[in-house]
Amino acid sequence: MKVPRQWCSRSAERLIFAAALLVAATSIQARGQAKTSTRQLADESALLSRPAAGRSVHTPQLQNRYPRYRLCASDVLAVSFPLTPEFDETATIQPDGFVTLTAVGDVHLAGLTTEESVQSIRAAYSKVLHDPIVTVELKKFNEPYFVVGGQVQRPGKYDLHGYTTATQAIAIAGGFNHDAKHSQVLLFRRVNDDWFEVKDLNLKRILSGRDLAEDPEIRAGDMLFVPQNMISKIKRLIPAYGVGTYYQLYR
Predict the structure, then answer these.
(1) How far is 195 from 240, CA to CA, in rounded Å?
(2) What residues does 235 pair with on adjacent strands?
(3) How many CB atoms lie within 10 A of CB 206?
(4) 134-144: pLDDT as tens digits
(5) Nearest partner of 243 among 226, 225, 227, judged by Cα
(6) Residue 101's closest CA among 124, 84, 119?
(7) Beta-sheet pairing, 237-239 with 195-201
(8) CB 165 within 8 Å of CB 216
(9) Could you give the count of Cα atoms lying within 13 Å of 233 in the half-sphere of its Cβ?
(10) HEC letters along 39-98
């Protein structure tokens, strides 16, 4: 039996059309599976990055153990100009933080490092000199210190030499008295000219070998106060004029 040619053509077209549909359906299914896999990977990643129930994740914060010295009142600076030595001079930072320099007047330097003070002085002298070269040498400065008060053997002001912790500072002051409440030592740290931050330290636990990581480093200007009695309420921030209240009430 002879099959008409037009039937063959129609059958071929149907086969091609069916094959195209199959390829399209396979492609759509593959794309759907890919999206599902991507979504599953994202969900798994989110679950892995999510902290376990009942446990908080703390990101350690790196701290600078050796901060650069910052200029303050009564510091003495030697300011030199290698190419124009006639401008060389020695200047003292005044109580308001300014120094008075030849030809440019007052420049505020308190709170800056020596490297930062070079930039400030260069900017001031750029008004009278073209691209000035400046060097600054710190000739005299205030020695960094800390204060220990309250129930210690030798309360007072001590020079801060190198890395010193709170327990070491207490030892430098002669150690605790018999009446000392060493489970509640207050660390006063100045945050600006008007306010102190107050931190409650349990040095009893630290000295017994527990919580050694909680023994903070003492910074220049810090004050440690050891009370005789438990202080029931401690504010995190207090005005600078309020520090003396603790010494009067709890010494």
Answers:
(1) 5
(2) none
(3) 20
(4) 999 999 988 88
(5) 225
(6) 124
(7) antiparallel
(8) yes
(9) 1
(10) HHHHHHHHHHHCCCCCCCCCCCCCCCCCCCCCCCCCCEEEEECCCCHHHCEEEECCCCCE
